[in-house]
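Progress note, project year one: complex with zinc ion.
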Amino acid sequence: MKVLSRQEELRRILRREGLEAFLTVDPIHRYYLSGFRGSEGTLLLLPEETVLLVDGRYTLQAREQAPHTRVVEYQRPQYGEELRKALREAGVEQVAVESRRLTHAFFLQLEAILSPEIGVEPREGLVEGLRRKKDEEELFLLRQAFQLADEGFRHILSFIRPGVTEREVALELEFFMRRQGAEGAAFPFIVASGSRGALPHGLASGKVLEEGELVTLDFGCRLEGYHSDITRTVAVKRVSEEQRQVYEAVREAGEKALSLLQAGVSGKEADEAARAHLREKGYGEAFRHSLGHGVGLEVHEAPSLSFASTDILEDGMVVTVEPGVYLEGRGGVRIEDAVIIRPGGYELLTLSPKELLIVG
Ligand code: ZN
Ligand code: ZN
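Model obtained:
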């Protein structure tokens, strides 16, 4: 089970940082470190064991999903007592918490429960750092989630036609992927047609698709907590010369960036490769966001592919490449692929076609 190696890895990081124990109430990190998917619970990573404190609603589920973790059931009023006991028995004097992933109220509550015996140490990015590189179990789920998104794209091509609304397209996509086994939508889908395509984040609206429009679809699904994220832009019925030009510039920008990707390349270099191409084609100003992002248990996570990124890509990272051009009043094009970074190259996760498809 991979969670054991994740727990060990986090212990190594804690030791390196001079920390003794780690506490999280974040559902994503609880799941990542234990396998438990309940909506409430406190995960404690102690030097010798991992403990999951849950209330009676989750005891059975926690035992089933987190076999490598000692499950402690508590009655609500005894939460503080059980927490103190677990930390005291482990002999720790301080515990690290995730300042970006707990509320201020809970932080104060922890201090009240634990002080003065045990110090509460706010930290950032401990687990996020680990999550940057995916292990085989994660890659297995990500491949499936991206495959489902590809199937969704293939399905929706026959649904898109003049007269349907953006919202109907989004709903059909979600319905299809859920019927195929997705847990849910990865995020509220973007379906942006015609001049709405100029909105990089144009959520599906009641607008009706019309002949001669480009439609940008940015969507994905969630599978056992892992997300897919794909964008394709298609033309309804016909395409103008300008639309084709913009499309080809975006497609080529993506190819330029992809051709660079391998372990050791920086997020900034990849971004610049795509950006330089769009500049050359006269669309430099029209590419108004960063090139890509990590994807996994969250849709947007580290590393980042952007002009400001300091990240260096490593074997096992999963990142998107999504150049776009947005022209006010006219529309837009975005094409998004995802890859697994490998030494000397990458494995493509998004296999949907990238030539401009005319549908409807
Ligand atoms: Zn996307
Ligand atoms: Zn994305």
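Residues 218, 229, 231, 336 surround zinc ion (ligand 1) (CB under 6 Å).
The radius of gyration is 23 Å.
No further modelling is planned for this target in the current period.
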